[in-house]
Design brief:
Elements (H helix, E strand, L loop, with lengths): L13 H7 L1 H25 L5 H12 L11 E4 L4 H12 L3 H24 L11 H23 L15 H6 L1 H6 L5 H16 L6 H4 L3 H16 L7 E2 L5 E3 L12 H4 L12 H29 L8 H17 L5 E4 H9 L6 H15 L10 H15 L2 H10 L1 H16 L2 H18 L4 H5 L2 E5 L2 E8 L5 H7 L7 E12 L1 H16 L3 E5 L4 E3 L8 E3 L2
Parallel strand pairs: 6-7, 7-8
Antiparallel strand pairs: 1-4, 2-3, 5-6, 7-10, 9-10
C-alpha cells in the first residue's frame, strides 16, 4: 500500500487554516492545556523558579511563538528535560539565594535565546545529527534519574538539606539521602498519602481498559483527586519562625504551591544580567541552555514530524529562531526556557490538532487560567506535582531504554551508560561529551581513520551520492544535507561501497530518510549496504564492511 499523501487534503496554514480547522485545533488546544497546566507548574517548582512562571513560559510559547514556528504541530513550553540545568543555574548563580539565583538565571536564558536565534540564522537546524543517538538517549535517561532523585523526597513532604543548610542539587547526594527520607516517612504522613495516591494515578491511569477515560490526562486526574484530599487532611503552609533580629530560627513547612501574585503583578521585568560578573558560570549555563534546549527541541520536531498524519516537514532552522525568540521574551518576564515539548506535542497529534493554531489556543487557555490563577494558588499540593514529574522521569529513564540500547549493540549500551554516569557525577555537558568521546574511540578501534571521523569524502553524480571512508555521526551532516537537496519525489542513490563502517546514528537517519522519500513517491537506495555485516541482530546496529 502506498504511503503517498494527497496534497489537496493537507490542512491550510495561516488565517485560512484557522478558519478551516478552528474546531479541531481549539479542542486539541484545550486538551493540551489540561495536560500543560499541572506539568508547567511542576516543572517550574522543580526548577526552583516561582511556580506561576512555568505558566508564563507556556503562555508565551503558545500565543507568541506559534506565529514564528517552523513546525506546525509542536507545542512550545517548559520542559522536564531542562529542570536539571535550570535548578543548577539558580543554585550556582545565586549561591544559596533562590530569588537572586532565579533573576540571574533569567539573564542566562535571554542570552541563550539570542544564541538559539543565531543557530537558526546560521542554519544549524541539523545540529542534532552531530550527536550520537546512544549519547542523546543516555543524556535523557540521566535527566530522568535526576528528576526522580529530587521529586521522591518532595513526594513524601521532605526537602533534603546538607549539614550547612544549603539545598542539595547534586543527584548522587539526593539519591544517597533517600534512605533518610524514607526512614522519616511518617514525619509528614498526610502529605505522603497525597503523594502516593497521586503516584498511583500517574502510573495506573494509562493502564485503564476504558479508552474514553484514558483520553483524560492523568496529570489532570491527579489534581482533581489531590486537591480535595489535601483539603480533607487540612494540609497548609507553615510560615518561618524568626527571632527579634529577623533571623529564621525554624524553617517553615510549605507543602502547597503559593503564587502570591496575579497576572498583572508578574508581567514586570524580572531579568538581571549581573550574572555576567560570574563569567565562567554564566557562560556555562548559557551554553547548556542553548545547546541542550536546542537539541531537545530539534529531536522533538523530528519525532512529531514522524507522527504527523499529513507527513509535513518542519523547517528546523525557522523553529530554532522561534524557540530563541520565545526564550528571550520568557526570560525577560521571569519564565523558564522553552522547547518543543514531546509529551504535549504528541498529545496534540493524538487529539486531532492540525495546524499551529492548536499551540496558539493552548496558550490562550493558559492566559485565561492565569487571569484567575491567584484563586487556585494555595490549593495545589507539591506532592501531586512531584508524582507527575516522577512519571516523566520514569519515561525518560525507563528500563526498556537500557534493553533497547543493549539490543542494538554492546557498543551502544556502553556509550549510553557512560553518558549517564558522567552526567550524574558531573553535569550534562561533560556527560554528553564523555559519550561522544567514547563513541569516537570505538570508531577508531574499528579501523575508521582519524581524518574520516569529521570529514566525509563525497562525490555527487546526477542522482548518486558516493561516500568514501566511513559514514558516522560526526561526519554525516554534509552527506545528509546533500541528500536533502534532491526533491523527495526523486530516485536517489547513496553509494557506501567504499566505506569501511556505517554507524548506528547514520543507519537510523537513513531509515527515516527512506521513509520520507517513499511517502512523497520517490526512492532512496543504499547501494552496497548488503556488503556490510551488522554487529548485532538489530537492524539499526553498526554495520562493518566484510573483508
Amino acid at each position: 500500500m502506498s504511503n503517498h499523501i494527497n496534497k489537496k487534503n493537507i490542512p491550510l496554514d495561516g488565517l485560512a487554516g484557522l478558519k478551516q480547522n478552528f474546531s479541531s485545533d481549539a479542542l486539541s488546544g484545550f486538551l493540551v492545556f489540561l495536560l500543560a497546566l499541572p506539568l508547567s507548574l511542576g516543572i517550574a517548582g522543580a526548577s526552583d523558579f516561582p511556580a506561576i512562571y512555568g505558566l508564563i513560559t507556556a503562555m508565551i510559547g503558545g500565543i507568541v511563538v506559534s506565529f514564528f514556528a517552523g513546525s506546525l504541530l509542536t507545542i512550545k513550553g517548559p520542559a522536564a528535560g531542562l529542570i536539571v540545568i535550570v535548578a543548577g543555574s539558580v543554585a550556582e548563580l545565586g549561591h544559596g539565594d533562590s530569588d537572586l539565583g532565579w533573576k540571574l538565571a533569567l539573564g542566562a536564558i535571554v542570552v541563550a535565546g539570542v544564541v538559539q536565534v543565531l543557530f537558526g540564522l546560521l542554519k544549524l537546524g541539523s545540529l542534532s545529527d552531530f550527536f550520537p543517538l546512544s549519547a542523546v538517549h543516555g543524556m535523557l535517561a540521566a535527566i530522568g534519574i535526576i528528576i526522580i532523585s529530587k521529586q521522591l523526597h518532595i513526594l513524601v513532604g521532605m526537602n533534603p538539606v546538607t549539614e550547612a543548610g544549603k539545598p542539595m542539587v547534586e543527584p548522587l547526594e539526593l539519591l544517597a539521602e533517600l534512605k533518610n527520607t524514607f526512614a522519616n516517612f511518617f514525619l509528614h504522613k498526610d502529605v505522603a498519602i497525597v503523594g502516593l495516591v497521586s503516584l498511583a494515578i500517574v502510573f495506573g491511569w494509562p493502564m485503564l481498559p476504558v479508552k474514553a477515560l484514558k483520553k483524560i490526562p492523568s496529570a489532570l486526574v491527579v489534581l482533581i483527586v489531590a486537591i480535595p484530599l489535601t483539603m480533607y487532611f487540612g494540609i497548609h503552609n507553615v510560615a518561618d519562625v524568626k527571632n527579634e533580629a529577623g533571623e529564621v530560627i525554624t524553617k517553615g513547612f510549605a507543602p502547597l504551591l503559593e503564587f502570591k501574585k496575579g497576572l498583572f503583578d508578574i508581567l514586570s521585568v524580572n531579568v538581571s544580567f549581573d550574572g555576567f560578573s560570574q563569567t565562567g558560570t554564566f557562560i556555562k549555563f548559557v551554553i547548556m541552555f542553548a545547546l541542550v534546549g536546542s537539541l531537545e527541541a530539534l529531536l522533538t520536531v523530528k519525532a512529531v514530524d514522524m507522527l504527523d498524519p499529513y507527513k509535513r516537514k518542519s523547517n528546523t532552522n525557522k523553529d530554532l529562531i522561534a524557540v530563541g525568540i520565545g526564550n528571550i521574551i520568557a526570560g525577560i518576564f521571569g519564565g523558564l526556557p522553552m522547547i518543543s515539548e514531546v509529551a504535549r506535542s504528541s498529545a496534540n497529534v493524538s487529539n486531532g490538532g492540525k495546524t499551529r493554531w492548536a499551540n496558539f489556543f493552548h496558550g490562550v487557555f493558559i492566559l485565561l487560567f492565569l487571569i484567575f490563577a491567584i484563586t487556585f494558588s494555595d490549593l495545589i499540593p507539591k506532592a501531586a506535582l512531584a508524582a507527575m514529574l516522577i512519571g516523566v522521569g520514569w519515561k525518560l529513564a525507563h528500563p526498556r531504554e537500557f534493553g533497547h540500547m543493549a539490543k542494538i549493540g554492546m557498543d551502544q549500551i556502553a556509550v549510553f551508560i557512560v553518558t549517564i554516569i558522567f552526567t550524574l557525577a558531573t553535569d550534562l555537558l561533560i556527560g554528553i561529551a564523555a559519550g561522544i568521546v567514547l563513541k569516537l574511540i570505538l570508531h577508531l578501534s574499528r579501523g575508521v581513520s582519524l581524518g574520516s571521523l569529521f570529514n566525509s569524502k563525497m562525490t555527487v553524480h546526477e542522482h548518486t551520492v558516493k561516500v568514501q571512508g566511513a559514514a558516522v555521526f560526526s561526519n554525516f551532516i554534509k552527506v545528509k544535507n546533500q541528500l536533502l537537496k534532491f526533491p523527495y519525489t526523486a530516485n536517489v542513490v547513496l553509494d557506501v561501497r567504499e566505506c569501511t563502517l556505517v554507524d548506528h546514528s547514520v543507519i537510523e537517519t537513513l531509515h527515516h530518510l527512506k521513509d520520507d522519500f517513499e511517502t512523497e513517491g520517490g526512492h532512496l537506495v543504499i547501494m552496497g549496504i548488503d556488503e556490510f555485516t551488522p554487529t548485532s541482530k538489530h537492524k539499526m546496529s553498526v554495520h562493518r564492511k566484510r573483508n
